[in-house]
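REVIEWER CHECKLIST
Item 1: Sequence provided? yes
Item 2: Single chain? yes
Item 3: Sequence as submitted:
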Amino acid sequence: SSEIDGFFSAAPVQVCEQLETETDRVAKWLVERANLLLKDAETFRARQGHSEQRPGMPLKADQVVAMTLDRAQP
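Item 4: Structure as written out by the authors:
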């Protein structure tokens, strides 16, 4: 999208920000981490007695937590 292109034009990915490992290991870790964050968010909202998202609250199920980039794409 043009928003993503604009962002990375202004703030290109630095070498120290790149992760080089097997894709399946990263995918497994991301799924486990997202599930943990969602569980924590559900617990937090249950304790607070509300279900809406507020600033500073943990993640909701429909929020973006990661994005992959493919250098092969134009």
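Item 5: Key structural point noted by reviewer: The mean pLDDT is 75.
Item 6: Recommendation: ____
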